[in-house]
Structure formats: C-alpha cells, structure tokens
Amino acid sequence: MLSDVEERQQTIVNHLKINQFARITELIDLVNYSEATVKRDLVVLEQSGLIRRVRGGAMLVDNQKIDVPYMMKITHLEEESEKRYIADIAANLIKDDMVLFLDSSTTSLHLVRNLGRFEGLQIITNGVITAAMLSEFTSAKVSIVGGKIVQKRATINGAKAYNDILTYAADLAIISCRGFDFNQGVTETHEGEALVKRAFRKQANHLMVLATQDKLEQRFIHQAIASHEIDYLVTSQKLTNEQLKKIYEHHTECFY
What's the pTM? Predict the structure, then answer.
C-alpha cells in the first residue's frame, strides 16, 4: 500500500501524464496540500527523473516511464483521435464469424465501437473493461481469460492467463504495445503483459499490432512479439523509407 506521501506524488505524476504541464496553484488544489509540501514533492519527483520543475509549475520529462491508472485513461478516450483513426483502419481487416484475441489497451477500446457491425464474432480478451464494453455494444460471444486483475490497470495477465489463452485458437490477435522497435518488435514494461501477448501470438493464425506514433522506435525491458511474428502493423502516419524497408524485410503489411 502506498504511503500518503507516495500517493500524493503519484497523483501529481498522473495529472502531468494527462496534461503534460501544471502550475503550482493547480497542483495545490489537486492534492489539497500546502505550497511548501507540493514544492517538496516536485523536488523529489525531479530527482527521480520523472518531472522537470519550470517557472511557476512542473512538466513531465518522459511520458513513457510511468503508467497512468486505467480508469483515468478511459476518461480521456474521446480526446484520442489518433487511436480512433487507427481503430477505424484495423476494423477493415476484420470479417464476420472471426475468432479474435483482443488485448486490454485503450486502443482496443476504440476498436470495440467498430465491432457492432459484424456478425458471429467470438472474442477472447484479458481486459476487464474491454470485456464489459464488448458485451454491451456488440453481439459477439465474449470470453475473458482467467487470472488476477492487475491493480489500477483493469487487465488480467501473468502465468495463469497465459495458460488459459493456450486453450483457445483464434483467427486474428489484435494488440497494442508500450513500445515498437522495427528490429526487435513489440516490447512491454510489465512481464505479465508481455507473456499474455506471446500467448495471443502463439494461438492466433495472424497478429495485428496497433501503434500510435509515440510508440514507434521505443523499446522496453520485456520482449513480447518479435518483428517477424507480426503480420499487420497499423499506425496513423506513413512510415519513413528506412522504417518501411525494415517492415518489408519481416514480410509485415503496414496500414495507415
């Protein structure tokens, strides 16, 4: 359990993750502590390399380093036009009567709104909110993998989830990622999440990666999917010639 100090500092970081910059007065109102306390928190967070203090406030240094609680992310879904665009493209690769693996990412939540037009879908997901939305807004038969829910992330992952996924077979696995490296493939910050995506790849005929621009050329500690295992990459902008060359070397189709 987080201490009061850690929880307050995490609240500040989460706010900056969404807004990128905040004034001191804004943070004081957010955490309901004194100016002196907030300034001390900012010093600690800056020393940790998460934020940078600037005149009158603070800004995030690297939004790839930290996770935002899942419920905070989904409150901003309507602002995520890039993810909606990617989801619209991805939907064109789906057909009636498919069996799909769908991960717990917010990009997948955008895809859910496109799935209501399909008939006969069967969808297996490790996302708690994803499963609920699929059940509410589509006619698909929805299954959720077994295991423990990761705190504040509304996702199920780890060894138990991995083994459960191995009991299914799918036509297409659809995943997002924390980082996509054109040489190494999909990487994650959490080992359990990487494990689930490896299981999806193992049990699916094809795999589609949905990647926003900020995920490209990023690499994290846990390898999930190798580049040559990816059938489709969906992103929001045309890739550079060098990036396309690497994609084609792995026989991956790119859509944008």
Answer: 0.73
